[in-house]
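Provenance

Sequences were taken from public entries as deposited. Structures were produced by running a predictor on each sequence independently, with no templates supplied. The record for tRNA modification GTPase MnmE from Corallococcus interemptor is shown for reference.
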Amino acid sequence: MTSDSATIVALATAPASGAVGILRVSGPAALEVGRRLAPGVPASPTPRHAYLASFVDAAGAVLDEGLFLYFQAPRSFTGEDVVELQAHGSPRLLRLLLARALEDERVRPALPGEFTRRAFLNGRIDLTRAEAVADLVAADSEAAVRAAAAGLSGALAERIRALETPLRELHADLEGVLNFPDEAEGADAEAVPRVAELRAVAEALRAEVGRGRLVRQGARVALYGPVNAGKSTLFNRLVGEARALVDAEPGTTRDALEARVEWEGLGVTLYDTAGLREAPGRVEALGIARTRELLAAVDLAVLVLPPGTSREEAASWTREAGATPVFVVTGKCDVMPGAEAEATAPPRVSGLTGEGVEALRTSVLTRLWGGGTPSAVALVSERHADALRRTAEALGRAEDASRVSTLEVLSGEVGLALEALGEVSGTSVSDALLDTLFQRFCIGK
Ligand SMILES: Nc1nc2c(c(=O)[nH]1)N(C=O)[C@@H](CNc1ccc(C(=O)N[C@@H](CCC(=O)O)C(=O)O)cc1)CN2
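Predicted structure for tRNA modification GTPase MnmE:
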């Protein structure tokens, strides 16, 4: 779907009772439609002025008294004429207002994300900022809010531009040399350092993808280990509330319990798993399979061992996590005070007394984030990661070509890199990609 001349309308607020509900209209007919609902507003309202107005039905009966806002094209969110009716937050009232707006044949309901899509298509915001709008609405941790806000203010756009502009210049230079080979003196040699430098910039951006995913989706951390090592007490302590069923009998935790916490602003989903071994019953056997699956999927596995576990046993438990990184702690250190105090032994924690729990939290964060407080990262989505991978790969091939191959090949690869990067900024996107992207927006965004 490309931009059309229809005027679109949708509720900008959630379809639930609230203090205020907003009906938003965008397109050429916005002002006329808005004034039919609020006839008291002057024919040429002052842009961005909040008029207190009566909203009326077709017979002129008053439905509500609210605020009327007019943004004149192109100085609006969408770049089109926009009118907002800010009414009292009654879902039924808002549906009446929506239905009235739709009586005009130039008006149709907005598709999911269509306001933001129009903002993009009208050049008000680039694609990274449009995506940041959806990220902000979906953000469920402080770090995710901050990362989306950074994207919204153009942080990623700026970094992409810093790569895209010199890449475009290089491409233009190479094409110029190809078209006028007489002036090609030394062009190959000159291209080598430029390609290498741009490749390094692309790789550096790519390196942030992992952190971006952590911020956006939150980290997943599982506690595992032998039965009765104090996992559930530790889980409860970490979660800060009595969630897991804690019992003196081994094997109480039959399946993974999960809880969402926020550490230093980073969203973390914690899992408390069933013991992997020594489980006699069938329920436990099922739990074991699920535990293995879970361990393969998480970002970090915390292996909780009882005091006195041998080195060999610890190593064999570590192997259970497969490729997932493991952080080993000695649980229930309250049971055997002073035991295993040697420097090589895993850090001691006790869910019961809280000893070592803060240190564990810090270590886990360091393992996940690699030091420093989780902060706003520019790069967030898998889509960005994939486009940047293709950018870096094309530049890698360009770098090889700049040494051994022809200028045509080199320029072709630089062109491919540029195209892949354009999928992030939005300078080269298909309608199909836009459809996919804006489908994850809600209606009215
Ligand atoms: N009531 C209300 N609140 C809202 C929005 C909205 O549309 N309505 N927003 C919507 O999602 C966000 C605010 N975003 C906005 C972004 C740009 C413009 C705007 O008018 N931009 C023009 C003018 C810029 C200027 O003059 O400084 C432009 O970009 O040209 C408005 C809102 C969040 N809060």
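The pocket of FFO is lined by residues 12, 22, 71, 74-77, 84, 124 (CB under 6 Å).
Residues 303 and 328 are 5 Å apart (CA to CA).
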